[in-house]
Fold:
Amino acid sequence: RKEVEQDPGPFNVPEGATVAFNCTYSNSASQSFFWYRQDCRKEPKLLMSVYSSGNEDGRFTAQLNRASQYISLLIRDSKLSDSATYLCVVNWGPKTSYDKVIFGPGTSLSVIP
Amino acid sequence: DAGVIQSPRHEVTEMGQEVTLRCKPISGHNSLFWYRQTMMRGLELLIYFNNNVPIDDSGMPEDRFSAKMPNASFSTLKIQPSEPRDSAVYFCASSQHGGAQHFGDGTRLSIL
Structure:
């Protein structure tokens, strides 16, 4: 099993649609989780952290399921500007290597007019 | 606030030449990361430092690659000798302990 897995897509959705991405991770000791977005030929940028109780930031909602070792990202009312690759990021422990994170391969989203 | 600063933005050089990439992390961040990104392999962690000390270099491809962090505000990634398969985008990122990483704009490296 790969360390962090994502459906590569591409997801092609119309404007205004709701789209959900899932990500699974193999390290049960992981403590920190993030979603990043990366635009073509640009650097990855933090979209949001993922908290145990789930969290929302505007149109974006992140959920964590530790028992099943997956995290999700829900985007409501998709905008053209949401078109990007979304990267799931999981920290890798152990404590001696706490800051090490693993980036998933990314899921490509295209929002169509 | 200044973000992570990388230089050069673009580098084109012939195989066999030495390449040096530079990074200035965000002030106050104590962890620094070097990544390489290609279409085929995605984003790969090469090495990371915590408080200027290399913690994990298991991602460094081979002895041709080396990285240093002489102080809290500067790091280099060196490739010597360079090969065409080293062509990629190299990102530097920094974070505070356990926090999210912030990336520089990257260096687009082409080895001819």
Remarks:
- The first strand of chain A starts at residue 4 and ends at 6.
